[in-house]
Amino acid sequence: MPPPTPPLVTPSLLLTLIFAIALAASVLTKLWLASRQMRHVAAHRDAVPALFADRISLAAHHKAADYTIAKTRFGLLVLAIGTATLLGWTLLGGLDLLNASLLDALGGGMWQQLALIAAFALISGLIDLPASYYQTFVLEQRFGFNKMTPGLWLADLLKGTAMGALVGLPILAVILWLMGSAGQWWWLWAWAFWVGFNLLLMVIYPAFIAPLFNKFQPLEDESLKARVQALMQRCGFAAKGLFVMDGSRRSAHANAYFTGFGASKRVVFFDTLLQKLNGGEVEAVLAHELGHFKHKHIIKRMLGLFGLTLLGFALLGWLSQQGWFYTGLGVTPNLNIPGLPGSSPNDALALLLFMLVIPVFSSFVSPLLAQSSRKHEFEADAYAVQQTRAADLQSALLKLYEDNASTLTPDPVYVRYYYSHPPAVERIRHMQQLAHD
Fold first, then answer.
1. Which one of the listed residues 281, 289, 377, 403 is annotated catalytic?
2. Based on C-alpha coordinates, what's the Rg of the chain?
3. In the chain, what are the helix, strand and coil shares in percent, each to the nearest 5?
4. Shortest CA distance to 24 belongs to which of 123, 97, 91?
5. 289 flagged as catalytic
6. Angle at the Cα of 435 (from 432 to 436), degrees rounded to 5?
7. Which residue among 381, 392, 403, 411 is the active-site one?
8. Could you read off the pLDDT of 386-416 as tens digits, one per residue?
Protein backbone atom coordinates (compact mmCIF):
# COMPACT_ATOMS: atom_id res chain seq x y z
CA MET A 1 0.00 0.00 0.00
CA PRO A 2 1.47 3.37 -1.01
CA PRO A 3 2.04 5.93 1.79
CA PRO A 4 -0.74 8.47 2.27
CA THR A 5 -0.40 11.62 0.21
CA PRO A 6 0.28 14.63 2.40
CA PRO A 7 -2.32 17.40 2.18
CA LEU A 8 -1.58 20.12 -0.35
CA VAL A 9 -2.57 22.85 2.12
CA THR A 10 -1.34 22.32 5.66
CA PRO A 11 -2.65 24.38 8.61
CA SER A 12 0.69 26.19 8.67
CA LEU A 13 0.49 27.16 4.99
CA LEU A 14 -3.16 28.12 5.38
CA LEU A 15 -2.28 30.53 8.21
CA THR A 16 0.50 32.02 6.09
CA LEU A 17 -1.95 32.62 3.24
CA ILE A 18 -4.65 34.06 5.52
CA PHE A 19 -2.14 36.38 7.20
CA ALA A 20 -0.70 37.55 3.88
CA ILE A 21 -4.16 38.20 2.41
CA ALA A 22 -5.36 40.02 5.55
CA LEU A 23 -2.21 42.16 5.62
CA ALA A 24 -2.52 43.04 1.95
CA ALA A 25 -6.21 43.87 2.36
CA SER A 26 -5.49 46.02 5.41
CA VAL A 27 -2.69 47.94 3.71
CA LEU A 28 -4.64 48.47 0.48
CA THR A 29 -7.68 49.66 2.43
CA LYS A 30 -5.56 52.18 4.34
CA LEU A 31 -3.90 53.38 1.15
CA TRP A 32 -7.29 53.86 -0.50
CA LEU A 33 -8.69 55.72 2.49
CA ALA A 34 -5.63 57.96 2.77
CA SER A 35 -5.78 58.85 -0.92
CA ARG A 36 -9.48 59.71 -0.57
CA GLN A 37 -8.75 61.91 2.44
CA MET A 38 -5.96 63.83 0.72
CA ARG A 39 -7.96 64.35 -2.49
CA HIS A 40 -11.09 65.45 -0.63
CA VAL A 41 -9.27 67.88 1.65
CA ALA A 42 -7.26 69.34 -1.25
CA ALA A 43 -10.42 69.76 -3.36
CA HIS A 44 -12.08 71.81 -0.57
CA ARG A 45 -8.97 73.74 0.45
CA ASP A 46 -9.93 77.06 -1.13
CA ALA A 47 -13.38 77.50 0.41
CA VAL A 48 -14.36 77.62 4.07
CA PRO A 49 -17.62 75.66 4.62
CA ALA A 50 -20.58 78.04 4.68
CA LEU A 51 -21.44 77.05 8.25
CA PHE A 52 -18.10 78.46 9.45
CA ALA A 53 -17.45 81.23 6.91
CA ASP A 54 -18.01 84.01 9.44
CA ARG A 55 -15.77 82.47 12.14
CA ILE A 56 -12.89 80.65 10.41
CA SER A 57 -10.51 82.58 8.17
CA LEU A 58 -9.41 81.26 4.82
CA ALA A 59 -5.80 81.30 6.04
CA ALA A 60 -6.70 79.05 9.00
CA HIS A 61 -8.63 76.77 6.65
CA HIS A 62 -5.59 76.54 4.35
CA LYS A 63 -3.36 75.66 7.31
CA ALA A 64 -5.74 72.91 8.44
CA ALA A 65 -5.89 71.44 4.95
CA ASP A 66 -2.12 71.50 4.51
CA TYR A 67 -1.54 70.02 7.97
CA THR A 68 -4.06 67.24 7.36
CA ILE A 69 -2.54 66.34 3.99
CA ALA A 70 0.99 66.40 5.43
CA LYS A 71 -0.01 64.15 8.35
CA THR A 72 -1.82 61.74 6.06
CA ARG A 73 1.12 61.57 3.65
CA PHE A 74 3.48 60.97 6.56
CA GLY A 75 1.11 58.27 7.80
CA LEU A 76 1.62 56.44 4.49
CA LEU A 77 5.37 56.39 5.12
CA VAL A 78 4.78 55.06 8.64
CA LEU A 79 2.43 52.44 7.18
CA ALA A 80 5.09 51.30 4.70
CA ILE A 81 7.75 51.06 7.41
CA GLY A 82 5.39 49.25 9.76
CA THR A 83 4.35 46.75 7.09
CA ALA A 84 7.94 46.00 6.11
CA THR A 85 8.88 45.63 9.79
CA LEU A 86 5.98 43.27 10.43
CA LEU A 87 6.96 41.07 7.49
CA GLY A 88 10.56 41.19 8.66
CA TRP A 89 9.65 39.97 12.12
CA THR A 90 7.32 37.22 10.89
CA LEU A 91 7.48 35.62 7.44
CA LEU A 92 11.04 36.78 6.73
CA GLY A 93 12.34 35.20 9.94
CA GLY A 94 13.44 38.13 12.11
CA LEU A 95 11.76 36.94 15.28
CA ASP A 96 12.93 33.39 14.66
CA LEU A 97 16.54 34.58 14.30
CA LEU A 98 16.35 36.72 17.45
CA ASN A 99 14.85 33.85 19.45
CA ALA A 100 17.47 31.35 18.23
CA SER A 101 20.30 33.77 19.06
CA LEU A 102 19.05 34.32 22.60
CA LEU A 103 18.50 30.60 23.11
CA ASP A 104 22.12 29.98 22.14
CA ALA A 105 23.32 32.74 24.46
CA LEU A 106 21.07 32.20 27.48
CA GLY A 107 19.55 28.76 27.11
CA GLY A 108 15.86 28.37 27.92
CA GLY A 109 13.82 29.57 30.85
CA MET A 110 12.31 32.80 32.15
CA TRP A 111 15.37 35.00 31.60
CA GLN A 112 15.57 34.05 27.95
CA GLN A 113 11.88 34.78 27.47
CA LEU A 114 12.12 38.19 29.16
CA ALA A 115 15.27 38.94 27.16
CA LEU A 116 13.42 38.06 23.95
CA ILE A 117 10.58 40.45 24.72
CA ALA A 118 12.96 43.20 25.87
CA ALA A 119 15.15 42.84 22.79
CA PHE A 120 12.12 42.86 20.52
CA ALA A 121 10.79 46.04 22.20
CA LEU A 122 14.19 47.74 21.99
CA ILE A 123 14.71 46.92 18.31
CA SER A 124 11.15 47.95 17.45
CA GLY A 125 11.62 51.22 19.32
CA LEU A 126 14.84 51.96 17.45
CA ILE A 127 13.10 51.30 14.13
CA ASP A 128 10.31 53.71 15.08
CA LEU A 129 12.67 56.38 16.44
CA PRO A 130 13.41 58.28 13.19
CA ALA A 131 9.70 58.60 12.38
CA SER A 132 8.97 59.85 15.90
CA TYR A 133 11.76 62.43 15.63
CA TYR A 134 10.59 63.56 12.20
CA GLN A 135 7.00 63.92 13.34
CA THR A 136 7.99 66.10 16.30
CA PHE A 137 10.78 68.23 14.90
CA VAL A 138 9.81 68.46 11.23
CA LEU A 139 6.08 67.94 10.76
CA GLU A 140 4.79 69.49 14.00
CA GLN A 141 7.53 72.14 13.86
CA ARG A 142 6.56 73.18 10.34
CA PHE A 143 3.01 74.00 11.41
CA GLY A 144 3.99 75.72 14.65
CA PHE A 145 2.83 73.06 17.11
CA ASN A 146 6.06 71.67 18.49
CA LYS A 147 7.39 73.28 21.66
CA MET A 148 9.77 70.49 22.64
CA THR A 149 13.53 70.78 22.64
CA PRO A 150 15.66 67.80 21.59
CA GLY A 151 16.76 67.51 25.23
CA LEU A 152 13.18 67.29 26.49
CA TRP A 153 12.29 64.82 23.74
CA LEU A 154 15.24 62.63 24.70
CA ALA A 155 14.41 62.91 28.41
CA ASP A 156 10.81 61.81 27.73
CA LEU A 157 12.12 58.91 25.65
CA LEU A 158 14.49 57.74 28.37
CA LYS A 159 11.91 58.12 31.14
CA GLY A 160 9.30 56.30 29.09
CA THR A 161 11.72 53.48 28.34
CA ALA A 162 12.74 53.18 31.99
CA MET A 163 9.11 53.24 33.13
CA GLY A 164 8.22 50.60 30.56
CA ALA A 165 11.01 48.34 31.79
CA LEU A 166 10.33 48.86 35.51
CA VAL A 167 6.60 48.28 35.16
CA GLY A 168 6.31 46.13 32.04
CA LEU A 169 8.93 43.46 32.68
CA PRO A 170 7.56 42.37 36.09
CA ILE A 171 4.05 42.21 34.61
CA LEU A 172 5.30 40.14 31.70
CA ALA A 173 7.16 37.88 34.12
CA VAL A 174 3.90 37.21 35.98
CA ILE A 175 2.01 36.48 32.76
CA LEU A 176 4.78 34.20 31.47
CA TRP A 177 4.84 32.39 34.82
CA LEU A 178 1.06 31.90 34.63
CA MET A 179 1.35 30.62 31.07
CA GLY A 180 3.83 28.00 32.19
CA SER A 181 2.43 27.08 35.61
CA ALA A 182 -1.33 27.67 35.78
CA GLY A 183 -2.49 24.88 33.49
CA GLN A 184 -4.90 25.09 30.59
CA TRP A 185 -6.87 27.94 32.21
CA TRP A 186 -3.79 30.16 32.55
CA TRP A 187 -5.32 32.71 30.19
CA LEU A 188 -8.21 33.36 32.59
CA TRP A 189 -5.85 34.00 35.49
CA ALA A 190 -3.64 36.18 33.30
CA TRP A 191 -6.64 38.20 32.18
CA ALA A 192 -7.76 38.71 35.81
CA PHE A 193 -4.25 39.88 36.69
CA TRP A 194 -4.20 42.25 33.71
CA VAL A 195 -7.57 43.75 34.67
CA GLY A 196 -6.46 44.22 38.28
CA PHE A 197 -3.26 45.92 37.20
CA ASN A 198 -5.11 48.32 34.89
CA LEU A 199 -7.54 49.29 37.64
CA LEU A 200 -4.60 49.89 39.98
CA LEU A 201 -2.86 51.94 37.30
CA MET A 202 -5.88 54.22 36.99
CA VAL A 203 -5.58 54.98 40.70
CA ILE A 204 -1.82 55.55 40.89
CA TYR A 205 -1.21 57.16 37.48
CA PRO A 206 -2.40 60.71 38.36
CA ALA A 207 -0.37 61.00 41.55
CA PHE A 208 2.80 59.03 40.78
CA ILE A 209 3.36 58.54 37.04
CA ALA A 210 1.96 61.60 35.24
CA PRO A 211 4.08 64.04 37.37
CA LEU A 212 7.21 62.35 36.03
CA PHE A 213 6.47 63.86 32.62
CA ASN A 214 4.51 67.06 33.35
CA LYS A 215 4.03 69.63 36.06
CA PHE A 216 0.56 69.91 37.59
CA GLN A 217 -0.43 73.05 39.47
CA PRO A 218 -3.77 73.69 41.24
CA LEU A 219 -6.11 75.89 39.22
CA GLU A 220 -5.55 79.42 40.54
CA ASP A 221 -8.15 81.38 38.57
CA GLU A 222 -10.76 81.86 41.32
CA SER A 223 -13.50 82.96 38.94
CA LEU A 224 -13.00 79.93 36.69
CA LYS A 225 -12.63 77.64 39.69
CA ALA A 226 -15.97 78.81 41.11
CA ARG A 227 -17.59 78.35 37.73
CA VAL A 228 -16.21 74.83 37.32
CA GLN A 229 -17.11 73.80 40.85
CA ALA A 230 -20.67 75.07 40.38
CA LEU A 231 -20.98 73.06 37.17
CA MET A 232 -19.66 69.92 38.85
CA GLN A 233 -22.04 70.38 41.76
CA ARG A 234 -24.99 70.75 39.34
CA CYS A 235 -23.90 67.57 37.58
CA GLY A 236 -23.36 65.64 40.82
CA PHE A 237 -19.69 65.02 40.08
CA ALA A 238 -16.87 65.05 42.63
CA ALA A 239 -13.15 65.22 41.90
CA LYS A 240 -10.06 65.28 44.06
CA GLY A 241 -8.83 68.50 42.52
CA LEU A 242 -8.64 70.89 39.58
CA PHE A 243 -5.21 71.07 37.99
CA VAL A 244 -3.41 72.90 35.18
CA MET A 245 -0.82 70.91 33.21
CA ASP A 246 2.13 72.49 31.43
CA GLY A 247 1.19 71.10 28.04
CA SER A 248 2.79 74.13 26.37
CA ARG A 249 6.25 72.68 27.17
CA ARG A 250 5.69 70.10 24.46
CA SER A 251 2.95 71.24 22.10
CA ALA A 252 0.64 74.08 21.17
CA HIS A 253 -2.30 71.66 21.00
CA ALA A 254 -4.94 72.20 23.70
CA ASN A 255 -7.02 69.73 25.66
CA ALA A 256 -8.75 68.94 28.94
CA TYR A 257 -9.39 65.54 30.49
CA PHE A 258 -10.36 63.55 33.54
CA THR A 259 -7.88 61.13 34.99
CA GLY A 260 -7.93 58.67 37.84
CA PHE A 261 -10.52 56.31 39.17
CA GLY A 262 -12.93 56.46 42.08
CA ALA A 263 -11.82 58.93 44.75
CA SER A 264 -8.61 59.72 42.85
CA LYS A 265 -10.37 61.41 39.89
CA ARG A 266 -8.85 64.71 38.83
CA VAL A 267 -9.82 67.37 36.33
CA VAL A 268 -6.82 68.45 34.25
CA PHE A 269 -6.69 71.48 31.96
CA PHE A 270 -3.85 72.05 29.53
CA ASP A 271 -2.43 75.54 30.09
CA THR A 272 -2.83 76.06 26.34
CA LEU A 273 -6.58 75.45 26.68
CA LEU A 274 -6.96 78.12 29.36
CA GLN A 275 -5.02 80.55 27.19
CA LYS A 276 -7.34 80.08 24.21
CA LEU A 277 -10.82 79.74 25.71
CA ASN A 278 -12.87 82.08 27.87
CA GLY A 279 -14.61 80.97 31.06
CA GLY A 280 -17.88 80.02 29.41
CA GLU A 281 -16.11 77.98 26.75
CA VAL A 282 -13.96 76.14 29.31
CA GLU A 283 -17.13 75.35 31.27
CA ALA A 284 -18.79 73.99 28.12
CA VAL A 285 -15.79 71.76 27.30
CA LEU A 286 -15.80 70.43 30.85
CA ALA A 287 -19.56 69.82 30.65
CA HIS A 288 -18.93 67.71 27.55
CA GLU A 289 -16.43 65.60 29.48
CA LEU A 290 -18.90 65.30 32.36
CA GLY A 291 -21.43 64.05 29.81
CA HIS A 292 -19.23 61.03 29.20
CA PHE A 293 -19.41 60.21 32.90
CA LYS A 294 -23.15 60.92 33.10
CA HIS A 295 -23.83 58.45 30.29
CA LYS A 296 -21.33 55.99 31.77
CA HIS A 297 -19.27 56.00 28.58
CA ILE A 298 -16.04 55.50 30.49
CA ILE A 299 -17.36 52.42 32.27
CA LYS A 300 -18.88 51.05 29.06
CA ARG A 301 -15.61 51.47 27.18
CA MET A 302 -13.68 49.91 30.04
CA LEU A 303 -16.00 46.92 30.20
CA GLY A 304 -15.86 46.59 26.42
CA LEU A 305 -12.06 46.66 26.53
CA PHE A 306 -11.99 44.06 29.29
CA GLY A 307 -14.38 41.85 27.34
CA LEU A 308 -12.31 42.07 24.15
CA THR A 309 -9.17 41.41 26.15
CA LEU A 310 -10.75 38.29 27.67
CA LEU A 311 -11.47 37.00 24.17
CA GLY A 312 -7.91 37.86 23.18
CA PHE A 313 -6.40 35.95 26.10
CA ALA A 314 -8.67 32.96 25.39
CA LEU A 315 -7.63 32.98 21.73
CA LEU A 316 -3.96 33.24 22.73
CA GLY A 317 -4.44 30.33 25.14
CA TRP A 318 -5.56 28.15 22.24
CA LEU A 319 -3.13 29.40 19.60
CA SER A 320 -0.12 29.03 21.88
CA GLN A 321 -0.68 25.26 21.85
CA GLN A 322 -0.85 24.97 18.05
CA GLY A 323 2.41 24.27 16.24
CA TRP A 324 1.09 25.75 12.99
CA PHE A 325 0.59 29.10 14.73
CA TYR A 326 4.37 29.45 14.97
CA THR A 327 5.48 27.86 11.73
CA GLY A 328 2.76 29.62 9.73
CA LEU A 329 4.17 32.98 10.89
CA GLY A 330 7.80 32.22 10.17
CA VAL A 331 8.93 30.99 13.59
CA THR A 332 10.33 27.63 14.59
CA PRO A 333 8.74 26.74 17.94
CA ASN A 334 11.03 25.82 20.80
CA LEU A 335 11.25 22.26 21.98
CA ASN A 336 8.91 22.30 24.98
CA ILE A 337 8.86 18.95 26.76
CA PRO A 338 8.29 19.20 30.53
CA GLY A 339 11.15 17.65 32.46
CA LEU A 340 13.44 17.40 29.45
CA PRO A 341 16.76 19.22 30.00
CA GLY A 342 17.43 21.87 27.36
CA SER A 343 13.78 22.27 26.34
CA SER A 344 12.33 25.78 26.40
CA PRO A 345 8.77 27.12 26.56
CA ASN A 346 7.15 28.96 23.66
CA ASP A 347 5.26 31.44 25.84
CA ALA A 348 7.20 34.61 24.96
CA LEU A 349 7.12 33.62 21.28
CA ALA A 350 3.36 33.17 21.45
CA LEU A 351 2.89 36.56 23.13
CA LEU A 352 5.01 38.39 20.57
CA LEU A 353 3.45 36.68 17.56
CA PHE A 354 -0.02 37.40 18.86
CA MET A 355 0.78 41.08 19.47
CA LEU A 356 2.27 41.33 15.99
CA VAL A 357 -0.57 39.80 13.99
CA ILE A 358 -3.72 40.70 15.93
CA PRO A 359 -3.67 44.38 14.78
CA VAL A 360 -3.81 43.18 11.16
CA PHE A 361 -7.15 41.47 11.77
CA SER A 362 -8.55 43.91 14.34
CA SER A 363 -8.10 46.83 11.90
CA PHE A 364 -11.23 45.65 10.10
CA VAL A 365 -13.23 46.09 13.33
CA SER A 366 -12.07 49.68 13.87
CA PRO A 367 -15.02 51.25 11.95
CA LEU A 368 -17.44 49.69 14.45
CA LEU A 369 -15.47 51.02 17.40
CA ALA A 370 -15.19 54.44 15.76
CA GLN A 371 -18.95 54.52 15.17
CA SER A 372 -19.63 53.74 18.82
CA SER A 373 -17.21 56.46 19.91
CA ARG A 374 -18.86 59.07 17.66
CA LYS A 375 -22.25 58.16 19.13
CA HIS A 376 -20.85 58.77 22.61
CA GLU A 377 -19.50 62.17 21.51
CA PHE A 378 -22.94 63.22 20.27
CA GLU A 379 -24.46 62.17 23.59
CA ALA A 380 -21.82 64.11 25.54
CA ASP A 381 -22.47 67.18 23.38
CA ALA A 382 -26.19 66.91 24.10
CA TYR A 383 -25.50 66.75 27.84
CA ALA A 384 -23.18 69.76 27.65
CA VAL A 385 -25.85 71.79 25.83
CA GLN A 386 -28.28 70.99 28.66
CA GLN A 387 -25.83 72.20 31.31
CA THR A 388 -24.21 75.18 29.56
CA ARG A 389 -24.81 77.50 26.63
CA ALA A 390 -24.74 75.76 23.25
CA ALA A 391 -23.07 78.85 21.77
CA ASP A 392 -20.17 78.47 24.19
CA LEU A 393 -19.62 74.84 23.25
CA GLN A 394 -19.80 75.62 19.54
CA SER A 395 -17.36 78.51 19.94
CA ALA A 396 -14.98 76.37 22.00
CA LEU A 397 -15.06 73.55 19.44
CA LEU A 398 -14.31 75.89 16.55
CA LYS A 399 -11.43 77.50 18.44
CA LEU A 400 -9.98 74.08 19.20
CA TYR A 401 -10.44 72.92 15.62
CA GLU A 402 -8.72 76.07 14.39
CA ASP A 403 -5.88 76.02 16.92
CA ASN A 404 -5.24 72.29 16.35
CA ALA A 405 -5.48 72.76 12.55
CA SER A 406 -8.15 70.08 12.29
CA THR A 407 -9.71 70.04 8.86
CA LEU A 408 -13.35 71.07 8.57
CA THR A 409 -13.73 69.11 5.32
CA PRO A 410 -12.62 65.49 5.88
CA ASP A 411 -13.58 62.74 3.47
CA PRO A 412 -16.86 61.13 4.68
CA VAL A 413 -15.65 57.56 4.12
CA TYR A 414 -12.40 58.28 5.95
CA VAL A 415 -14.44 59.71 8.82
CA ARG A 416 -16.60 56.60 9.09
CA TYR A 417 -13.56 54.35 9.18
CA TYR A 418 -11.24 56.26 11.51
CA TYR A 419 -12.78 59.21 13.33
CA SER A 420 -13.52 58.70 17.01
CA HIS A 421 -15.09 62.19 17.11
CA PRO A 422 -17.65 63.47 14.60
CA PRO A 423 -16.36 66.18 12.26
CA ALA A 424 -17.11 69.77 13.18
CA VAL A 425 -19.93 70.18 10.66
CA GLU A 426 -21.86 67.23 12.09
CA ARG A 427 -21.31 68.32 15.71
CA ILE A 428 -22.42 71.90 15.13
CA ARG A 429 -25.50 70.86 13.17
CA HIS A 430 -26.37 68.36 15.89
CA MET A 431 -26.22 71.12 18.51
CA GLN A 432 -28.30 73.44 16.36
CA GLN A 433 -30.91 70.70 15.98
CA LEU A 434 -30.97 70.19 19.74
CA ALA A 435 -31.57 73.91 20.21
CA HIS A 436 -34.59 73.79 17.87
CA ASP A 437 -36.13 70.64 19.40
1. 289
2. 25
3. 75, 5, 25
4. 91
5. yes
6. 90
7. 381
8. 988 888 999 988 888 888 889 999 999 999 9
